[in-house]
Every structure is written in structure tokens, then in C-alpha cells.
From TrEMBL:
Required for dimerization of active 70S ribosomes into 100S ribosomes in stationary phase; 100S ribosomes are translationally inactive and sometimes present during exponential growth. Residues 132-185 form the Sigma 54 modulation/S30EA ribosomal protein C-terminal domain. One of its GO terms (molecular function) is ribosomal small subunit binding. One of its GO terms (biological process) is negative regulation of translational elongation. Associates exclusively with 100S ribosomes, which are dimers of 70S ribosomes. Interacts with 100S ribosomes. HAMAP family: HPF. GO terms for cellular component: cytosolic small ribosomal subunit. The gene is raiA. The keyword Cytoplasm applies. It comes from Amaricoccus solimangrovi. This is Ribosome hibernation promoting factor. It comes from the Bacteria. Residues 73-100 form a coiled coil.
Length: 193
């Protein structure tokens, strides 16, 4: 398993790097025996340390966890605890559905844009001169080919509120999202035709 440990404007010592590599390999190894890639990034936010961990599984799924604590080791342990819980759920779902994807999830390339939003304070917000949005950032992203169940699982594993995917059943673009009432919404434009 390849593990990249880095710090944003903080120095990561060899002791912390070794601790992260050992604990992460042990935790992921309990649930998945095939090699995976992992990235753990530490940063400082005011008086707290933030540990942001993501693990790419060979099935194509991405598991992400983040935790904050007053001590750098405690922040990592919090993120690792969350990640273990997600991995346990994912493994249980694979076992319960008797479905194991042998090959990685296919994904197509797509453009992703971040648009400039309005001000949070309505008094400071002014009406734009045109209705053309201002693009703040542009990047490449991947749109995976998943079943609806896998898409919901991926959304939960990544801690996202929304996931765009291509439906394995028919190849069309679909969206799953978390609703305000806590349920999951699913948008399938193909069903309206």
C-alpha cells in the first residue's frame, strides 16, 4: 500500500509519518487485502490540528475522513476511527449484496467548474451586470460508472452531499443526493422519456 503523508505549512516528523503508515495499513488491511493508495494531510486551523485522510480502494471507491483535535496524533486517530467505520460498512454491504466488483470502476473525464457566488450578507450583495457566471476555478474530474446502490455508497464514503454518475443499467447520467429530511434523492432523467 502506498501512503503519502504530508503537512500544509507544518512539519511532519518521521515518528508521525511512521505512526500514520503503520496504523493506516493495519486498519485498511482488516477489510481489504489488495493494495490501495492513501493520502493523509495534516494542517493547523487556529489552535487545532486537522487530519484529512483519503484511501483509494482497488474497486475504484474513495473513502474520506477528516477529524480535528488539539493534538496532531489525536486528530489522526479520530480520522482513522471514522474511516474504519466507513470501511466496515462498505465491506458489510459488499458481503450482504453478494456483489464483488472484480475490475475497477470505469470513469469518464469531465470538466468541473467553481463559480463565484453571491455574498452571504444581502446588504453587500449587488446584482451582476450580466447573467454570465464568473468561473473561479476549472479542473478535471471523473464521472464513475456505478449502479445506484454503489453511487449511494460512494457518496456516503466520500462524505459528499451529491454525486454525479453514469448508471450501469443504461449508461445515462444520474445524480444521487442527500435531502434535507435525511433521505437520499435519485435523479434519473432517462425515466421521464
Amino acid at each position: 500500500m502506498r501512503i503519502q503523508v504530508s503537512g500544509k505549512q507544518i512539519d511532519i516528523g518521521d515518528a508521525l509519518r511512521t505512526h500514520v503508515e503503520d496504523r493506516l495499513a493495519e486498519a485498511v488491511g482488516k477489510y481489504f487485502d489488495r493494495p490501495v493508495d492513501a493520502v493523509v494531510t495534516f494542517s493547523k486551523d487556529r489552535h487545532e490540528f486537522v487530519a484529512d485522510a483519503s484511501v483509494h480502494l482497488t474497486t475504484g471507491m474513495l473513502v474520506q475522513a477528516k477529524a480535528r483535535a488539539g493534538e496532531v496524533y489525536a486528530s489522526f486517530e479520530g480520522a482513522l476511527e471514522r474511516m474504519e467505520k466507513q470501511l466496515r460498512r462498505y465491506k458489510r454491504r459488499l458481503r450482504d449484496h453478494h456483489r464483488f466488483r472484480e475490475e475497477p470502476i470505469l470513469a469518464m473525464e469531465a470538466q468541473s467548474y467553481i463559480l463565484e457566488g453571491g455574498q452571504a450578507d444581502e446588504a453587500d450583495y449587488s446584482e451582476p451586470d450580466s447573467l454570465q457566471p464568473v468561473i473561479v476555478a476549472e479542473m478535471e474530474t471523473k464521472v464513475p460508472h456505478l449502479s445506484v446502490g454503489e453511487a449511494v455508497m460512494q457518496m456516503e464514503l466520500a462524505g459528499a452531499h451529491l454525486l454525479v454518475f453514469r448508471n450501469d443499467a443504461h449508461g445515462g447520467v444520474n445524480v444521487v443526493y442527500t435531502r434535507d429530511d435525511g433521505n437520499i434523492g435519485w435523479i434519473d432523467p432517462r425515466n421521464t422519456q
